[in-house]
Protein 1
Amino acid sequence: MSTTPARRRHPATSPFRREPAPAVPEFHRDDRVTHDSHGMGRVVGVETDAVRVDFGTCTMRILSPYSKLAKL
């Protein structure tokens, strides 16, 4: 079950503006980050659609849009 509401289709003839797409954070190597489940970590690799984060006990590959990952 999804917790985010479904996005409505925007009619081409609508006089209202379309909602902007949510901004995806940009991460760089050696950025300090925190994850909702894994805690604090450091970015060890950056790919086009994912980042590799070293959490001390394990290294995880987190996929974009990084909903549970935040830069410190």
Note: The chain has a mean pLDDT of 87.
Protein 2
Amino acid sequence: MTSQTPTSTEDTPSVPGWVEGSLDTILSSLPFAADTLAPLRARYLDCLATCGRVADLDSEHDACRKTLLTALRNTLGLDEDALRDLERKLEKLELDISADI
């Protein structure tokens, strides 16, 4: 019986190693505990990881960011000022990711 879990030698979507730490720094400015943000953080990182396989990277990043921001607004009630500030920080992160690819 073979395992369905990818091994370290298999090609799985991922973001550059530095992205997680940068995202954690950005998210630490929010008024929520890390464990509260963990599911949203994971979905955002997963979304970004799949973006490296598409032609229009910017629009894919936009979609990932908008999904995260909508979830923060609708699920956790993050206010509009904090959302705008977070959006600017995430846009910068995504530009850095694009430059690193």
Note: The radius of gyration is 15 Å.
Protein 3
Amino acid sequence: MEHFDLDKALQSQLHAPAPGPAPELDAALKAKLWQRQEQLDAAPDTRAVSLWWLPMVANFIVCGVPAVIFALPIMPLWAHLASFALAWLAVGGVALTFISLRMADLRQATTIYLPKRTRKKEGF
């Protein structure tokens, strides 16, 4: 049986040039990168702001603030009942918002696009 030199085999593999990607794959990747860069260059300079939370917050303020006021201990019994109903309306508005997020594309429908902020150039 012949003696196998492990150190020599390891050294030859470590110093061997690493095979690069096939030229077809390299060309395909470069083409995809150029297409992506063209898409980014063609896209307008805007930023998206989603307002899906705005109706929920408005409902919570409109129903929640009177509910807290009507829940004060100095209020009569009918005010406490109104407070209970308004609190459930506020919770229902939050629940409906989250349900509509799951069932409809509310985030996309309530997105506005604003121009990107640019820094002012400092002149001398």
Note: The chain is about 60% helix and 10% strand.
Protein 4
Amino acid sequence: MFTGAELKDWVLIVAGNIFIVILVVRAISHYAKREWGELITNLLIAVFIAWIVYSNSTFIAFLRWAAEKITGGQSASASGMDGAHTGVQALADSAPHVMALLAAGVI
């Protein structure tokens, strides 16, 4: 049965490699022009994208950890709301971007 996991991995790797190649070309250009701030920024972005592409499970785990820290990691009942909503779901009620992250399974 086709689940699409292989296709997703292939697309992530191809897109990530293209993006990293673009960043390397830009980094070489910034090095040649002696634009050190832009060079360091491009290198940091390349490391970040490599983390997303080649180790996406740890990146997703980090996003979940960060979301837990942002929301306090506690249920909404502890903050005075009814116990039916968690902290993330309470945010999703007021912020559509959090609901999109919930629907995508990131949080």
Note: Residues 13 and 54 are 7 Å apart (CA to CA).
